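As a warm-up, study this chain.
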Amino acid sequence: MQIIKPKFLHRNRRALLVLLDTVSVTAAYLVTWILISGRESLYSYRSLLFSSCVLFVLCFETIYVVMGMYDSLWRYAEAYEFFRCAVASIIALAIFLGMTLLIYTERRIPISVYLMSSLFAVSLTLYTRLTYRMLRNTNLPRLTEKKNRVMLVGAGEAASSLLYELNRTANKDESNIVCIVDDDPAKIGRTIMGIKIMGGIEDIPELVQKCDIDEILIAIPSATDDQKRRILGVCSATSCPMRMLPDISKMLSEGKDLIAAVRDVRVEDLLGRDQVELDTEGFANIEGRRVLVTGAGGSIGSELCMQIASSHPEKLIMVDIYENSVYDVQQKLVHMYGDKLDLDVRIASVRDEEKMFSLFEEVRPQVVFHAAARKHVPLMETSPEEAVKNNVFGTYNVARAADKYAVETFILVSTDKAVNPTSIMGATKRLCEMVLETINKTSNTRFAAVRFGNVLGSNGSVIPLFKSQIEAGGPVTVTHPDVVRFFMTISEAVSLVIKTAEIAHGGEIFILDMGEPVRILDLAENLIRLAGFVPYRDIPIEFVGLRPGEKLYEELLMSGEDLKKTKNEKIFISDLEEIPGEFLEKLEELRAIAESNDSDKTVEKIISMVPTFMIEQYNMLTERSYSHDS
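Now compare it with the structure written out below.
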């Protein structure tokens, strides 16, 4: 026997549904007649039965066609479609009753047959639709097919939608949901689409063992950050790989498939803070402006260029000393925007004063983002004069050029390490802030700085180091068991930089509310668990001690600073202490010492110029002996 192929069914779907409804309605009418009037009536009323049955079927099929019952995709039918089917049946019955009163004037059919057959017809029609929907939406997995045994965390709308999609595409996904957990006691013991809710969040480790779980899927997109941390903390103890379902409404607005949107749990999910949502679509201070970015090939600088390019600048000038990295960014932008973006790439050092002035004179930027800097804390301890030449005087050169050539806004990318610094790198960034505050007093340019904590995935970040150590089988090296840091994503940091350029009046230091600091040891342990290993058993962790210039915790504010609110609840402005009037004279003294390449004298001069420098902690970390009086 030849098998009817799916293509044939698809092409003839409408005709097959009409035939199925005709059979259903006919059967409903005849069976009802037999049940009410008995089998003997089939012969006695055969002429009336045949003609009235034809009329009954014609009425129903005509109304079904008129009301679009065969135009809907019943594969996706919901309550509305079934309601429409019931309404169509009521209308068909009313028309049938009216016609029988006109046609059958002598010998009438019992009214009970009309009513019961109509009810039976509606039921059969709905059942056929439900059966069709179930067969189309359900793909039974092959018995020999190996699937990942998955635990679903969450028993809400998101979990229900995910289960529906997984059930509909059972042969296309490698996931087999075997149990669900949820903290709602009323749900425990009940089922969703046949899957039992077996316990709460705290029961996850036990259920992973009991149900032989291979993977955990978190389907609570509405969970707060604290709830996510708790769930991920419990799940991390199991060593099972974890995945997460993002916000469904956001996913649908972006046109993404539900199953495809399920992603691995990322380290950002463990930060313990809500991501700052900033409007990156068309920054008012960027559109139609000539924008210059220094350090354009770096992690922050390159993201700056990407977001600036999306805001339709008149011209984007990318400046960097390292041609390979800035070339990569250039090619990405050319590929993305082509001739729509006026792009100008310059290989130059911010340390070259004449080059900076000639560049500004030529391109006349209106907005400047200064991201070029030496950032590596331990390396700058061994080469403090290089940190001074690049960070302090690179900033000084670019800032003076901006002042001379009437740049509207100048934003410095600073760091939390500039607060009460214990390192040369942090102290030089504080000097950069002081340079801007000083120049801002007499300039028409609006100079401001933005302080950040650690940026996830940036060059020199601890997270890429941990990941490479895990891939190598360990050990993962942590400086100290109690060290903590603030973290944020690169996109957040850059959005903040651009947004502050829009609201800056000059002289501010902008600070982001970064939430609670993250314990680095916890971060290392969670990264090991996310990789599917057990900390200390599969991957060892070693404590190597604080490096020169590092401290246990970073600060975003200096002692005694007051914060002012901005229109964004996550962004604040710091009022800083007054800069000494002789600061620029001391700056020139620092230049001479740095250019002599005398490291010890350079450090001494830096310490004397930064009143908030934590000299005792610095001496302890570096095993040196300096004082503010030196």
